[in-house]
Amino acid sequence: MKQETRESTLTVEEFEDFYAQKAAALTGQLYVMLGDLQEAQDVVQEAFVKGWSRRRQLDRDGHPEAWIRTVAWRLAVSRWRGHRRTADAWRRRGAPPGQVPEPGPEQVVLVDALRELPAQQRRTLTLHYLCDLTVEQIAHEAGLSPSTVKTHLARGRTALARHLRDVHFEEGPVV
């Protein structure tokens, strides 16, 4: 692979050669860093996918192997943080990771009512109430204006209340 500075994008053949020459070594390096071969393989593959869309930057920087390694490491760290947040959430809820309690009738009714909403309202309500995102965070993530997010939240709550009001279930033991 050429390491000179130039303005062109790596060709498909050059990128394929780069992948063929470096994927195994990068996977080995990440395996040593992470201690998990499957995780190393996953993050290196994902880093190469990201690298494909940034071929011009890879070629211009002249250090594509370092770029792929850095991206793979950051992906692994991001995954660790996600796993840790999930485990922390399970601990706060009182259920150990891996043991998911069966949904009660309230959760089933809520999920069914949410399915009746338009997709954007359902997504907005989920991001706000389950993921604890602010209106601004939802707007950024969903590519909407804050006023549109607020509208989706208001309409979604109204529609959800209407659906939940129509649903009645009996409490008591199931025979």
UniProtKB/TrEMBL annotation:
PROSITE patterns: SIGMA70_ECF. InterPro entries: RNA_pol_sigma-70-like, RNA_pol_sigma-70_dom, RNA_pol_sigma-E_actinobac, RNA_pol_sigma70_ECF_CS, RNA_pol_sigma70_r2, RNA_pol_sigma70_r4_t2, RNA_pol_sigma_r2, RNA_pol_sigma_r3/r4-like. CDD domains: Sigma70_r4. Gene3D superfamilies: 1.10.1740.10, Winged helix-like DNA-binding domain superfamily/Winged helix DNA-binding domain. Residues 110-160 form the RNA polymerase sigma factor 70 region 4 type domain. Belongs to the sigma-70 factor family. ECF subfamily. This is RNA polymerase sigma factor. The lineage of its organism: Bacteria, Bacillati, Actinomycetota, Actinomycetes, Kitasatosporales. Residues 25-86 form the RNA polymerase sigma-70 region domain. The keyword RNA-binding does not apply. Keywords: DNA-binding, Sigma factor, Transcription, Transcription regulation.
